[in-house]
Amino acid sequence: MVYNTKQNLMGTLYSITLFLHSWNRWLILIAGIIVIAFAIKGINKKSDYTDFQRKWSFIFLGSLHLQLLVGLAMYFFLSPLTMQALGDFGAAMKDSVLRFWAVEHAFVNIVAVALAQTGSILVKRKKSQKGKHVSTIIWMGIAIVLILAMIPMGMMGVERPWFRF
Fold first, then answer.
1. pTM of this prediction?
2. Does residue 164 sit within a domain?
3. Residue 78: is its pLDDT beyond 90?
């Protein structure tokens, strides 16, 4: 009875975190696109880096950090796929789906979060307005490209629902 209760609790927690992880990606993508689009607009119009851009950069980074936290909880404690992969890592490397979840998805997205955070720090240190816009485009742009590559929508041989209900 205790085992079933714990198993049910873990299944429920997994469902909740998977739902949150799935929907938060849309906030990340929307915020990232807004941040990059306004940086491009800032360069084209030779305008200042605005409070609007700071706000959306904060939303982008905050949602990335939430995604990382939820993803790590799933990776180490809740996901049956990563539990299987971590149980026999050698076998997981031979299975493209398990390898995607155990290594590729996790590693590349952690790198993307680190790049976005680094870019945010560098943008704050830039003195020129153009430098702020250029740094935003470069660092956030690379992060978004990496994130898009790792969303399981079939490009890497792994597909998941676009919207979870």
1. 0.90
2. no
3. yes
